[in-house]
């Protein structure tokens, strides 16, 4: 690997398919390092917070690994950070998944269940599982973000029952439409990006997003 | 509108991709990794690997196949066959799988569904069902490639499993499997009406019309095997037909090699 490759520290706290994330970073030209060391996390060049599963388990995992403070320190540094799926939801202030649980509180907002009916009033399936096209919100454009250059037909893979609702509409970067209803796909606050979708499982479109995360 | 997924299913025996009829009379097709890559490049939305003899003889080279595939395939992978415990699942997820399909072990001990779902999330826990028609509008769940009857009614079992935490159902019609005569649409309709979790219809796809029929009765995804392995159709051709039929599939899915 060349010395100029971007290094991404991937937080390893016992959940998620880290192998896929690491492989996708490498395929996109970066160097992936799995870590649960608070010092490495706080001082990383780029940080990726992965995760699948239940919110409470994820937060417990971060606590047990002793990396919460380090993640906060990194978030304040202004260096690029990417949360994926549960790793994105944990950026929120709180979640209502199976009770009430505090999140990291890095981007103010709540994690709520996806409504079980579409805009048409008909019941639809939750979890949402599948590919969806990303739509920009009125408040933010993709230009200059990891979604820069995405084509209108480009789709990403999502599987989730809960969504991140930021308190400030400006922090919602992209949505997808589920039976006409906008569901949060991507949040952003400065250097911090959260993707509900799995870029590491979204074929070429996802690898492109990771590549932009590596070079921004 | 429901997102429609097109899935390539690869049944594995030892190191080989194989294909049978009614899950029996297996023929070797080739190197699974090579086919996985081809299907990824053609734009498969997901891949499914099932080790179809693992339950009979214990596990084998499935982990290696999954690990090698995960190096160049960046879409979700579901892996099943012989997984019996939370530890087996953890191992397979570390190897590169995103979801696991559980059949025999769930029939023997349904609580395993809850254990897997609680530990890794329900999105990860796919119930594998081998269904054989047992009467008008009735199907029985089987294990071991449709050889071992369980006494479980398929529709009841699917709804019970969804209640226990199964996040998705891989519904294989043993009667149609490998026949290219079309999906068992009555089976798909009965299961999708009974559960609110996504269903993957498997077994019987021979033409693009069959795919449209399956979505018309409520499936969320179709799994294709024979029709792809023998080059009768490409995923790109199936996708074009899905678009023409007005289904909500991913566009421009082909990947450069």
Order of helices and strands of chain B: EEEHEHHEHEHHEEEHEHEHEHH
The largest sheet of chain B has its strands arranged as: 1-4-5-6-7-10-11-12
Output mean pLDDT of chain B: 93
Question: Rough shape of chain B?
Answer: globular
Side by side, the strands of the main sheet of chain A go 2-1-3-4-14-13-12-9
Helix content of chain B: 25-40%
Average predicted local confidence, pLDDT of chain A: 93
Quote the distance from N terminus to C terminus of chain A: 20 Å
Secondary-structure blueprint:
The complex is a heterodimer of chains A (216) and B (257).
Chain A: E1 7-11, H1 18-27, E2 31-35, H2 38-42, E3 46-49, H3 55-65, H4 68-76, E4 81-84, H5 86-89, E5 94-95, E6 101-102, E7 109-113, E8 128-133, E9 135-136, E10 155-160, E11 162-166, E12 172-178, E13 181-189, E14 192-195, H6 203-215
Chain B: E1 5-13, E2 16-21, E3 24-30, H1 32-42, E4 46-51, H2 54-57, H3 62-72, E5 77-80, H4 86-95, E6 99-102, H5 104-108, H6 111-120, E7 125-135, E8 138-143, E9 148-153, H7 154-164, E10 168-173, H8 185-194, E11 199-202, H9 208-216, E12 221-224, H10 226-229, H11 235-244
Parallel strand pairs in B: 1-4, 1-12, 4-5, 5-6, 6-7, 7-10, 10-11, 11-12
Antiparallel strand pairs in B: 1-2, 2-3, 7-8, 8-9
Features of the shown structure:
heterodimer, A: 216 residues, alpha/beta, eight-stranded mixed β-sheet, four-stranded mixed β-sheet, 14 strands, 24% helix, B: alpha/beta, 11 helices, 12 strands, 28% strand
Walk me through the structure:
Chain A has 216 residues and is of the alpha/beta class. Chain A has 6 helices and 14 strands. Chain A has helices at 18-27, 38-42, 55-65, 68-76, 86-89, 203-215, and strands spanning 7-11, 31-35, 46-49, 81-84, 94-95, 101-102, 109-113, 128-133, 135-136, 155-160, 162-166, 172-178, 181-189, 192-195. The longest helix of chain A has 13 residues, at 203-215. Chain A is globular and about 50 Å long. The mean pLDDT of chain A is 93. By secondary structure, chain B is of the alpha/beta class. Chain B has 11 helices and 12 strands. Chain B has helices at residues 32-42, 54-57, 62-72, 86-95, 104-108, 111-120, 154-164, 185-194, 208-216, 226-229, 235-244; strands at residues 5-13, 16-21, 24-30, 46-51, 77-80, 99-102, 125-135, 138-143, 148-153, 168-173, 199-202, 221-224. Chain B has an 8-stranded parallel β-barrel with strand order 1-4-5-6-7-10-11-12, surrounded by 8 helices. In chain B, helix 4 links the parallel strand 5 and strand 6 (99-102). In chain B, helix 1 (32-42) packs parallel to helix 3 (62-72) and helix 9 (208-216) packs across helix 11. Chain A binds chain B through residues 15, 17-20, 23-24, 27, 52-54, 123-132, 151, 153-155, 157, 159-161, 179, 198, 200-204, 206-207, and chain B through 1-5, 40, 43, 45, 67, 70-72, 74-76, 93-98, 118-124, 167-168, 196-198, 220-221, 249-253, 255-256.
